[in-house]
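During the second half of the funding period, the structural biology subgroup turned its attention to how the target accommodates small molecules. The most pressing case was AR6, which had performed well in the primary screen but for which no bound structure existed. We therefore specified the complex as follows and requested a full 3D prediction, including the ligand pose.
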Amino acid sequence: MTARLDARHADITTLAMDAIVNAANSSLLGGGGVDGAIHRAAGPALVAECRLLGGCETGDAKITGGHRLPAHHVIHTVGPVWRGGGHDEAALLASCYRRSLQLARAHRLRSIAFPCISTGIFGFPAEPAARIAVDTVRVELAGDEMPDLVLFCCFSADDLAIYRRLLAFG
Ligand code: AR6
């Protein structure tokens, strides 16, 4: 069986998944956007755990507990800042999805929710970012049983419409 992919309009901090993914920065010490929301909801123990991780490279991912979140784990990944498209942004964004799923699998997690990494403060255009997200997740999970649910968590109706179309028609 291959993983089920779905998209939902939600605040990712409310999702009771095995893991939610955080669109962090390389310090892993918090910020605005979804990063700020996750740290506020998880409580101060999350940043204390993050301090032990020594930061994270763009395109890579690291895992912590979920603390006060309903999710059991947080996978922190650092997306690229959009600089016009000629600075390896697409490959680095794909790497965020790939590395997050590899971590989820290594920890035997069954369900994971992604926000639209890099498309807020980091400025990556929404449509190409969603295409990279869906294509990368599909390839990474081909023929693999774990995780068995991957949710694209959209914070806007516009993002949800993009993902619904990509999931329906490829
Ligand atoms: N639940 C789900 N999605 C959300 C939520 C939420 N609660 N809040 C925002 N989004 P962004 P980035 C969506 O800016 O572009 C931080 O300061 C948002 O609408 O959070 O990767 C970090 O520390 C957008 O679709 O992340 C970094 O410095 C998506 O999450 C920097 O921002 C990503 O927007 C990372 O920028």
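Two results from this model are relevant to the next phase. The chain has one domain: 4-168. The pocket of AR6 is lined by residues 11-13, 23-25, 31-35, 37, 79, 115-122, 153, 155-156, 159 (CB under 6 Å).
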